[in-house]
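Is this the right way to post structure tokens for a design question? Let me know if I should format differently. Anyway, here goes:
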């Protein structure tokens, strides 16, 4: 079993409120937060309107599976959110 932590940082151009920020990033929790092998959370910049950071912990039966899930999260964030991905890091915990 492999456990992977992925952190994605976002820039939200023209975002003027926390309510707008949450609305623009809600798709992350909706799409990935309910899966049994993924934990999703807003991890930093909680009170900053135009910046966000989310962390995901992915559990996979092997490294290939964990990396495939991580790639699907990053791909979704890059293509479907009204935000710009500014940074993405990953770290194996186990």
């Amino acid at each position: 079993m492999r456990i992977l932590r992925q952190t994605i940082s976002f820039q939200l151009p023209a975002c003027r409120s926390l309510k707008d920020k949450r609305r623009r990033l809600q798709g992350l929790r909706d799409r990935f937060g309910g899966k049994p092998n993924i934990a999703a959370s807003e991890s930093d910049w909680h009170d900053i309107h135009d910046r966000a950071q989310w962390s995901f912990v992915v559990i996979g039966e092997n490294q290939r599976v964990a990396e495939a899930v991580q790639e699907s999260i990053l791909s979704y964030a890059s293509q479907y959110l009204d935000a710009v991905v500014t940074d993405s890091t990953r770290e194996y915990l186990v």
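Format looks fine. Someone answered above. Worth noting: The chain has a mean pLDDT of 94. The chain has one domain: 2-92.
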